[in-house]
Design goal:
GO terms for molecular function: L-amino acid transmembrane transporter activity. This is Amino acid permease/ SLC12A domain-containing protein. It is a multi-pass membrane protein. It is found in: Membrane. By secondary structure, the chain is mostly helical. It has one domain: Amino acid/polyamine transporter I, CATH 1.20.1740.10. Helix content is about 75%, strand content about 0%. The chain is built from 16 helices and no strands. The chain has helices spanning about 5-15, 40-50, 55-95, 105-110, 115-145, 155-175, 175-210, 230-240, 260-285, 300-345, 360-375, 380-410, 425-440, 445-460, 460-470, 470-495.
Length: about 500
C-alpha cells in the first residue's frame, strides 16, 4: 500500500528535532521504550485517583454559585455523559495507536506532525502544566484549611504548599513508574474513605435532625431563570471536575494488555465517578444551607456544619490528599507525552531522555519546573482554571476530529475497540467542546483570559515553521544583511568622494 500524504509529511518533518536518544539504561531505555508494568487495577486506580480529587470537592461549590442545586445536578450528569463520550473516543485511539504520545501521536497520524508539535507545546505551556497547577492549588487550599489557617487570607502559604506538592510528585515520579502508581493506589484508599465519610456523615446528620427533607432546594426555578452564560460557566467547572481521565492514554504503552484494559478502565472509571459525584452533590445539598454552598471550600463548610472544627480539619486534610493524587496522575501523563513527542522527533530531543529507572527524567523535571512558575505567577485557583481549560477543550475537540479523520484514512487498520454510536459520539464530543470555547471567547467576563489562552494554544504553528525553516531563514537573513551592508558601503564611498 503506498504511503499516505500524512505519512509523507511525517517523514519529511520528523527531522525538525533530530533524535539522538540519550538514555541511561541498557535494556528498555536504550531502545527508547518504557517498561510494561501497569495492570488493569493500576490503570483504574490512576483514573479514579485523578477524578476523585479536586474536581469532585471543589467544582460543586462553583457550580452551585452559577446554577443552583438542581442545575448543578443536571450539569454534573451532562458533564459525565460528555466525558464518557470522550473516553470512548480515547479508547479507540489508544488501542489503535498504542503510544505514550497519546494525543500527540493521534494528531500526527491524522493531520501531520505540525499539529502534534503545536499540541505538545501547548500541553507544556498551557494545558498540562496549568492542569497540575490548578489541582495543586486546590489541594493546598484544603490542606491549609485543615491545619487551622484561613486559605482566603493566607494566599502565600497556599502558594508554598502547592509548590511543595508539585516537588513531592516530581520526586515520586523520578523514583520510577511503580512508585508513582503506588502513590496512586495509597491515595485511592484515602479517596474511597473520604467519599464514604461524605455519604455517611450526610446520612447520619439528616437522620439525627429528623427534619423535613430539603426538597425546597431542588424546586428552584432553574428553567424559568435560565441563562446560557451561567450554564456554560457551570459546564466549565464540570469539565474541570472530569479533566484528567485522558491521561490514561499516555500510559497505554506501559500497560501489560492495553487492547483489553484501556476500554475497560475508561468505562468503569467514568461511570463510577459520575455516580459517586452525583451522590456527593446530593449529600452537600442535604446538609448545607443555601448561603454556604457557593464556595471553593464547599467540602470544608460541609464537614464544619456536621462536626465543627475538628471534623473539618481532618476531612480537609483528607481532601487535600485526594487532590494530590490528581496532581500526581496528571504529571505522570504529561511527562509521557513529551517523552514520546521527543522520541518521534517532534519535540526537543532532551525530553526523550530515559533514566535507569525507566522514567522520562527531563520531561518530568521540565513539566514540574514550569508548573511551579505558573503557581508563582498565577496564585488564585479560578485564574488558573481559566488559564488551562480553553486549551483543554480545544484538545478534546481535536481528538474527536482525529478519530473521524483516521476512520477515513485508515479504514482497514486493526481496531481492538470501536467507539459506540459512530459518528455521533465524536461529533457530539467535539461539537460541545468547540461551542464552549467559542462562547467563552465572546463572553465579556471570560474573553480576555480566553483569547490569551487561545493565542498560546496556537503559537506552536508559527514556532514549528520557524524551527523547520530556520536554516533557510538564517541564509536569507545573511544574504539580505550582506546586500544591505554592501549597499551602505557603496553609498558611503560615493559620498566620501
Amino acid at each position: 500500500m503506498p504511503p499516505t500524504a500524512n505519512e509523507h509529511e511525517a517523514g519529511s518533518e520528523s527531522e525538525v528535532f533530530s533524535v539522538a536518544l540519550p538514555t541511561a539504561d541498557k535494556s528498555n531505555a536504550s531502545k527508547g521504550e518504557l517498561k510494561k508494568t501497569i495492570t488493569f487495577t493500576d490503570g483504574l486506580a490512576c483514573v479514579l485517583g485523578s477524578l476523585i480529587g479536586a474536581g469532585m470537592f471543589v467544582s460543586p461549590g462553583m457550580m452551585f454559585e452559577r446554577l443552583g442545586a438542581f442545575g448543578s445536578v443536571i450539569a454534573w450528569v451532562a458533564g459525565g455523559a460528555l466525558a464518557l463520550s470522550g473516553a470512548l473516543c480515547y479508547s479507540e485511539l489508544a488501542t489503535l495507536l498504542v503510544s505514550a504520545g497519546s494525543e500527540s501521536t493521534y494528531l500526527a497520524k491524522a493531520f501531520g506532525n505540525v499539529w502534534a508539535f503545536a499540541y505538545a507545546l501547548m500541553l507544556f505551556v498551557v494545558v498540562g502544566s496549568g492542569g497540575v497547577a490548578a489541582v495543586a492549588s486546590a489541594s493546598a487550599i484544603y490542606f491549609v484549611e485543615g491545619i487551622g489557617y484561613d486559605a482566603g487570607t493566607n494566599e502565600r502559604l497556599v502558594q508554598c504548599v502547592a509548590i511543595g506538592l508539585v516537588l513531592f510528585c516530581a520526586c515520586m515520579n523520578l523514583l520510577g513508574t511503580s512508585n508513582a502508581v503506588l502513590v496512586q493506589r495509597i491515595l485511592l484508599v484515602v479517596k474511597v474513605l473520604t467519599i464514604m465519610m461524605v455519604l455517611g456523615c450526610a446520612g447520619i446528620y439528616r437522620a439525627a435532625l429528623q427534619t423535613i427533607p430539603r426538597s425546597d432546594v431542588f424546586t428552584v426555578d432553574f428553567f424559568g431563570g435560565f441563562q446560557l452564560q451561567k450554564l456554560v460557566d457551570g459546564m466549565f467547572k464540570v469539565v474541570f471536575a472530569f479533566n484528567g481521565f485522558q491521561y490514561l492514554a499516555p500510559l497505554s504503552e506501559e500497560m501489560v494488555n492495553p487492547d483489553r484494559d484501556v476500554p475497560r478502565v475508561f468505562l468503569a472509571g467514568m461511570t463510577s465517578v459520575t455516580a459517586l459525584g452525583l451522590f456527593v452533590i446530593i449529600s452537600f445539598v442535604s446538609v448545607l444551607p443555601l448561603d454556604k454552598m457557593s464556595a471553593e471550600r464547599l467540602a470544608s463548610n460541609f464537614f464544619h456544619q456536621i462536626g465543627g472544627v475538628p471534623l473539618k480539619c481532618v476531612a480537609s486534610v483528607m481532601i487535600a490528599f485526594c487532590a494530590a493524587g490528581s496532581a500526581n496522575f496528571k504529571l505522570i501523563g504529561c511527562s509521557r507525552i513529551f517523552f514520546s513527542a521527543a522520541r518521534d522527533g517532534i519535540f526537543p530531543k532532551q525530553f526523550a531522555y530515559v533514566s535507569e529507572r525507566n522514567v522520562p527524567t527531563v520531561s518530568i523535571i521540565a513539566t514540574s519546573v514550569w508548573t511551579i512558575c505558573i503557581l508563582m505567577v498565577v496564585s488564585k485557583l479560578n485564574d488558573v482554571l481559566k488559564y488551562f481549560l480553553i486549551g483543554q477543550l480545544l484538545v478534546f475537540a481535536a481528538v474527536g476530529l482525529a478519530l473521524i479523520r483516521l476512520r477515513s484514512t485508515m479504514p482497514f487498520a486493526h481496531r481492538p475497540y470501536r467507539v459506540s454510536l459512530y459518528p455521533s459520539t465524536p461529533v457530539v464530543f467535539s461539537g460541545s467542546c468547540i461551542f464552549m470555547v467559542v462562547y467563552a471567547l465572546f463572553d465579556p467576563s471570560t474573553a480576555k483570559i480566553s483569547w490569551c489562552s487561545l493565542l498560546l494554544t496556537f503559537m506552536g504553528f508559527p514556532v514549528w515553521y520557524l524551527v523547520k525553516h530556520s536554516s533557510t531563514i538564517v541564509s536569507v537573513t545573511s544574504k539580505v544583511s550582506t546586500n544591505i551592508a554592501s549597499s551602505m558601503s557603496n553609498v558611503l564611498n560615493r559620498s566620501g568622494r
